[in-house]
Amino acid sequence: MDGVDGADGTGFDDPPAEVLAEAAAAFGLLASSARLHIVWALAQGECDVTGLADRVGGALPAVSQHLTKLKLAGLVRSRREGRRQVYFVDDADVVTVVRLMVGQLTDRVDRADSADHAVRSPGRRLRGLGA
Fold this sequence. Notes:
By secondary structure, the protein is mostly helical. It has helices at residues 17-30, 33-44, 49-56, 60-72, 92-120; strands at 47-48, 77-81, 84-88. It has a 3-stranded antiparallel beta sheet. α2 (33-44) crosses α5 (92-120) and α3 (49-56) packs across α4 (60-72). The longest helix has 29 residues, at 92-120.
């Protein structure tokens, strides 16, 4: 086929094995709901570990350990501001991926809730079911 770059006809070449391994490691770190919540929070703006612990509802030592792992993977960076360390996501692509995934899933849950509500409330409530 003319004008198609990929060997499989999709227009995309397969990435090198090391790129796939790095992506899998990053997705593996984000597979933790706590770490994903931290990255989500940092995608909204920088924060110190105390503020993050308050926001995500985690214990300070646990949030600190999550941040260390995210930093080692290059998903999060930090800078010193006086006596505190301020964390941020410095990679716009990571922010885009996290916002896209969480946004898509939020929309899906909202649609399912709306459909479920429409089925459960045809104008009257069922007694004893909380519907």
